[in-house]
């Protein structure tokens, strides 16, 4: 077992690639010399880890974080240490995959009740009366 606990939503290490980047932020002058930020890349389109339906939902969920080739990039640079940023990136990836793995419930369309339709139409009539009353007074009155 590696330095990270295994999670059923975390892809195998072979499907992940990491790049370390300069981050800025807290850490004094030392921060300009150490690459503590992490760019975690996961090829969603070419992955054997996910089923096709989960891949589709993950691509939709990822938004701007996924490129045209289907590679998801997660940047983690909020912590001072590389180890914590790596853990953060993996945790965010597993959260995203977990969300995508849940199949959304199918909405069963319902019809408004008779009372709801009556109330809606009455509210529209009332609103119309209010708007008509806003006009210039009738000179014949």
From TrEMBL:
Metal-binding found in the keyword field: no
Its EC number(s): 3.1.1.29
Region (Disordered): 96-141
Record's keyword annotation contains Hydrolase: yes
Keywords: Hydrolase
InterPro entries: Pep_chain_release_fac_I
Domain Prokaryotic-type class I peptide chain release factors: 13-134
Enzyme's top EC category: hydrolase
Protein name, per record: Aminoacyl-tRNA hydrolase
């Amino acid at each position: 077992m590696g330095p990270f606990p295994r999670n059923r939503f975390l892809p195998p290490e072979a499907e992940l690639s990491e790049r370390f980047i300069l981050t800025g932020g807290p850490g004094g002058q030392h921060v300009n010399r150490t690459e503590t930020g992490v760019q975690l890349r996961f090829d969603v389109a070419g992955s054997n880890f996910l089923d096709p339906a989960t891949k589709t939902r993950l691509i939709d969920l990822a938004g701007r974080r996924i490129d045209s080739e289907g590679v998801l990039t997660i940047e983690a640079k909020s912590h001072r240490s590389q180890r914590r940023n790596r853990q953060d990136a993996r945790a965010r990836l597993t959260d995203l995959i977990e969300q995508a793995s849940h199949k959304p419930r199918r909405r069963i369309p319902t019809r408004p009740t008779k009372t709801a339709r009556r109330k809606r139409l009455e509210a529209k009539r009332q609103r119309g009366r209010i708007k008509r009353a806003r006009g210039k007074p009738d000179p014949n009155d």
